[in-house]
Amino acid sequence: MALDSKMTVNSLGFAKRPEDTRVVVAMSGGVDSSVVAAKLKSEGYDVIGVTLQLYDHGAALAKKGACCAGIDIHDARRVADEMGFPHYVLDYENIFREAVIEEFADSYLGGATPVPCIRCNERVKFKDLLATARDLDADCMATGHYIQRFEGATGPELHRAADPARDQSYFLFSTTPEQLGFLRFPLGHLATKDETRALAREFGLMVADKPDSQDICFVPDGNYAGVIEKLRPGAAEPGEIVHTDGRVLGQHEGVIHYTIGQRRGLGIGGLADPLYVVKLDVDARRVIVGPKEMLATRTVPVREINWLGDAPFTSQSEWHVSVKVRSTRPPREAIIRPLSDTEAEVELITPEEGVSPGQACVFYANEGSRVLGGGWIWAGRR
Fold it and tell me: Which candidate, 134, 36, 121, 125, places its Cα nearest to that of 79?
């Protein structure tokens, strides 16, 4: 049946009434996704809340700052009960372990510094959960991420959040155009997190003052090495701490305890100048240290690229953009030189310190807020 030409588009972009629009809300149990669900329900949408149980939550049951665990599932269910919409908990532990945790451990063992939150969005939330939303006949799936989605000339575009302090675009660069067509981010336009908490109080949500999650969800105490040793017994083999000039400065208890750019905790005090981890030689079990200037990197090899520009990635020999090589750093001017549809060499106009394999390199337009995709930093061909 043809749409009534007089029908207005609702707040989620559909030409039908909110009550005729089904939206699955990915609920982590935190204030952000709870506000999204409550807001959409109050606007009259047909809301279904879904929470994923991603890992063995016994150790984190009463821990503040975790997510997708026992107390968070309970909080999400209470919000759904109070607002009057159905809520389901899906056991994704096996999927999460295979798609995220195993690679996390292997990446650390390989000397990289992984970002499991990106893989979780890419391989679990925006893949399996999104498929579940479609199975529930949803028109779209909404999340509490701080990022914006706009309709552009060639389709949906990804843009940074209005609040730079809350922007999560670094963690969502791998969202594909197809996924972007189905996703909605109702909080991306808010100026501050205080506005989100104010909405939570307005809706009477008991999670209004709940602390934000801080750690990686399956590392509740922040001890990455401890988790890896549990997953890969014997992974923390001792070795040498070696200066770039060849001097052996000390011993370490496992390469997995170190990351590129690290200064503290090296156990080699008493030297005239501070030293930093500049390389991890996993095969030789060596932690290579040197002066700070050795951390400066200008050329960054990137692969597994997800391109969100209007023109094909390889249609130009160079793309002049801005990039982030760490989630906590601002975008810096760079030139991307495509090598294939999914690989490129990124030249940083100003060298960056502490660029590490396993981190993401996210692309941004030089003007405006648009996210152009990104890829994964790796060691490059040898």
Answer: 36
Residue 130's identity, in one-letter code, is L
For tokens 């014997």, what's the residue?
234
- Within 8 A by CB and 6+ apart from 334, the residues are 320, 321, 322, 323, 346, 347, 348, 349
Which residue type, as a one-letter code, is found at position 338?
A: P
- β-pairing, 286-290 vs 183-184, is unpaired
Q: What angle do CA 322, 325, 328 make, to 5 degrees?
A: 100
- DSSP 8-class letter at 295: G
> What six digits make up the tokens of 126?
């925006």
Residue 207 reports pLDDT greater than 50? yes
Query: Of these residues, 68, 120, 140, 361, which one is catalytic?
Result: 120
Reading the block at residue 63, the tokens are 């821990």
Q: What is the mean pLDDT of residues 297-322?
A: 97
Annotated active-site residue 140? The verdict is no
Nearest-CA neighbor of 287 among 321, 309, 259? 259
**Residue of 68, 117, 140, 217 marked catalytic:** 217
**What one-character-per-residue DSSP string does 6-22 give?**
TPPP-TTS-SS-GGG-E
Residue 6 has a pLDDT of: 63
Residue 253 neighbours by CB distance under 10 Å: 13
| CA angle, 100 then 101 then 102, to 5° | 100
Strand partners, 62: none
Lowest mean pLDDT among 8-22, 245-259, 365-379: 245-259
Q: Is 72 helix (H, G, I), strand (E, B) or coil?
A: helix
Q: How far apart are CA 234 and CA 236, in angstroms?
A: 6
Q: Is it the case that residue 60 has pLDDT exceeding 80?
A: no
Residue indicated by tokens 């204030």: 31
**What's the rounded Cα separation, in Å, for the pair 87 and 313?**
40
Residue keyed to tokens 């205080």? 194
Contact 40, 13 (CB under 8 A): no
pTM, 2 dp: 0.90
Establish whether 68 is a catalytic residue: no
pLDDT digits (tens, 9 = 90+) for 248-282: 999 998 898 888 989 888 888 767 788 999 999 98
Q: What is the mean pLDDT of the chain?
A: 90
